[in-house]
Write a structure and sequence with these properties.
Blueprint: E1 6-8, E2 13-16, E3 28-32, E4 35-36, E5 43-46, E6 55-61, E7 70-75, E8 79-83, E9 87-89, E10 94-100, E11 106-113, E12 116-123, E13 127-129, E14 138-146, E15 155-156, E16 160-165, H1 168-217
GO cellular component, one term: external side of plasma membrane
InterPro entries: Ig-like_dom, Ig-like_dom_sf, Ig-like_fold, Ig_Fc_receptor, Ig_sub, Ig_sub2, Immunoglobulin_dom
Keywords: Disulfide bond, Immunoglobulin domain, Membrane, Signal, Transmembrane, Transmembrane helix
């Protein structure tokens, strides 16, 4: 995957399909917006990216399951806010950077979060959060100026949504399905026991009535 999934038009990106365990063979399948590409190597090179390059990329090696999607976004703008990840697990690192078109130097940079100023630097710097929390979730954008322009005009990047998820959320996600499933199973078991008990009771009463009928007709054993 690229270090940044938001890039400028005209830049080059390489997507790499990795596996935890080495596999025999080197066949790789790539999909772009659910359409299979002709590339069968473990790396997908995108050169001179255009807006058409934006989309969802997936891969798989040797007929295994498809990977999680990588969402690539290509921009044509003066400023671009990039993030190391748009979805972060609580406790993991998060890096934000404000880039200028063609890597031109950006000055008097202001980072915003949810519409409020967050950080200011005369010389551009990244925002580095070593251990993200849910409080870091929000909408970010950056603002800055270029030193080669004589005007005092400032530029603003497109906003970027960052979501920080708690590690327990994945467990709770499964519990949301597990608890109703257990309730259904217990209900089914209880219903089965009830039906079984009712059937046994009906059977015993039937036997008892039959025996009473026989005693009335034939009092002798």
């Amino acid at each position: 995957t690229p270090a940044w999934n938001r890039i400028f038009r005209g830049e080059n990106v390489t997507l790499t399909c990795n596996e935890n365990k080495p596999l025999k063979g080197n066949f790789t399948e790539w999909t772009y917006n659910n359409t299979t590409l002709e590339v069968t190597t473990s790396s997908l090179h995108i050169t001179n990216a255009s807006h058409r390059s934006s989309g969802e990329y997936r891969c798989r090696n040797n007929d295994l399951n498809l990977s999680e999607a990588v969402h690539l976004e290509v921009f044509s703008d003066w400023l671009l806010l990039q993030a190391s990840a748009e979805e972060v697990i609580e406790g993991k690192a998060l890096v934000l950077r404000c880039r200028g078109w063609k890597d031109w130097n950006v000055f008097k940079v202001i980072y915003y979060k949810d519409g409020k100023p967050l950080e200011y630097w005369y010389e551009n710097k990244n925002i580095s959060i070593e251990s993200a929390t849910t409080e870091n979730s929000g909408t970010y954008y950056c603002e800055g100026a270029f030193n080669f322009k004589r005007t005092s005009e400032r530029y603003i990047s497109d906003p970027l949504n960052i979501t920080v998820k708690k590690a327990e959320q994945s467990k709770r996600y499964w519990l949301q399905f597990l608890i109703p499933l257990l309730v259904v199973i217990l209900f089914a078991v209880d219903t089965g026991l009830f039906v079984s008990t009712q059937q046994q009771l009906t059977f015993l009463l039937k036997i008892k009535r039959t025996r009473r009928g026989r005693k009335l007709m034939d009092p002798h054993p």
